[in-house]
Design a protein that fits this description.
The chain is α/β, with parallel strands linked by helices. Helix content is 22%, strand content 24%. The chain has eight helices and 13 strands. A six-stranded mixed beta sheet has the order 10-9-8-11-13-12, with helices on both faces. A five-stranded mixed barrel has the order 1-2-3-5-4. A two-stranded antiparallel ribbon has the order 6-7. Helix 1 links the parallel strand 8 and strand 9. The longest helix is centred in the middle third of the chain and has 16 residues.
């Protein structure tokens, strides 16, 4: 039988067969897929081949094969630097939820995530959530960020789940597709999913006022079928995002504004740091390339791990890099 993985709890998987029935399945043996050293060999969204077996009154499935993936989203494991964690597979698009201060989403996190999704050819939409809760200065920061990312080709949407602002616009983008929702804990993923499909009634928790961080409500990634011809993958909150195995000479290709300029650099293998006659650096000095994006690029290039220490103050970007 063939089916799609809808939920993974580590050792067991909920698989929806092609005939529409759900089966509780486990893995048979060890899986090694294209030399990926992953903490989870099977991810939500994977297409699998499985057999059913009966023990007493219980019928379970045994996954034998993972079919070729169209794409997947992967990040470095939090405590195992040499291993990776596959967040989801066979995704049509990702909605990256961003909040300014409750909790804060740093530009380094946004840029690392965009590099990864671009590397695996997955369309990403930036969702600036909770816009009903911001003061004038915070609204200005949102508009500033939108200008940066829209200028390089990313779609941006301002959303308020509580006031139902632009929720229908998100639903229109989701029609006929498998969409993943991702972001830090507390950015409002689950609340937005509930606004899109109230019948799901997923659990939500309040932001911790002491730390301005979200409390984990989603433990495992899970896919849901929606009533308007769409599928949604809800994911656990992500604290940081480690970019996996991108060659330093290719990294700039995943920054679309760098890629558009690199053919005019003096050297074909320019990595836009100390080389003479680098068009990317010239554009940076002229204000045509964002300093926050260039800062993210340097941190990834130098292999620095993302942390709060690297939060970009967008009002003092140029000063930080001089």
């Amino acid at each position: 039988m063939t089916g799609t993985v809808y939920k993974s709890t580590g050792s067991w998987y909920q698989v929806k067969s092609t005939d529409g029935d759900f089966h509780k399945c486990r893995i048979k043996g060890k899986f090694r897929i294209k030399d990926i050293k992953s903490t989870n060999p099977i991810a939500v969204g994977d297409k699998v081949v499985f057999d059913l077996e009966k023990k007493g009154d219980e019928e379970t499935g045994v996954i034998k094969t993972i079919l070729d993936r169209d794409n997947f989203i992967v990040r470095k494991s939090v405590n195992l630097s040499k291993q990776t964690h596959i967040i989801a597979a066979n995704v049509d698009q990702v909605f990256l939820l961003i909040t300014i201060n409750n909790p804060p989403t740093f530009t380094t996190f946004i840029d690392r995530f965009l590099v990864s999704t671009r590397a695996y050819r997955i369309d990403t939409i930036l969702v600036f959530n909770k816009i009903d809760s911001y003061e004038i200065e915070e609204r200005a920061e949102i508009l500033y960020l939108k200008d940066i990312y829209e200028a390089i080709g990313y779609r941006c949407v301002e959303v308020s789940s509580t006031e139902n602002k632009n929720v229908d616009k998100i639903k229109e983008m989701m029609l006929g597709k498998t969409s993943m929702f991702v972001g830090h804990s507390g950015v409002g993923k689950t609340t937005l999913v509930n606004a899109i499909e109230p019948a799901l009634n997923l659990k939500t928790k309040q932001i911790s006022e002491q730390h301005k961080q979200g409390q984990h409500t989603t433990t495992f990634a899970e896919m849901f079928d929606l009533r308007f011809d769409a599928r949604i993958i809800d994911t656990p909150g992500i604290k940081g995002f480690g970019v996996v195995d991108i060659d330093k000479y290719e990294l700039g290709d995943y920054f679309p504004e760098f890629f558009a300029l690199k053919q005019d650099c003096k050297f074909n293998n320019c990595i836009h740091t100390k080389e003479p006659n680098c068009v990317v650096k010239e554009a940076l000095e002229e204000g045509k390339v964002s300093w926050s994006r260039y800062k993210s690029y340097l941190q990834i290039l130098e292999g620095e791990e993302e942390s709060e220490h690297f939060r970009t103050d967008i009002w003092n970007e140029e000063e930080d890099l001089l």
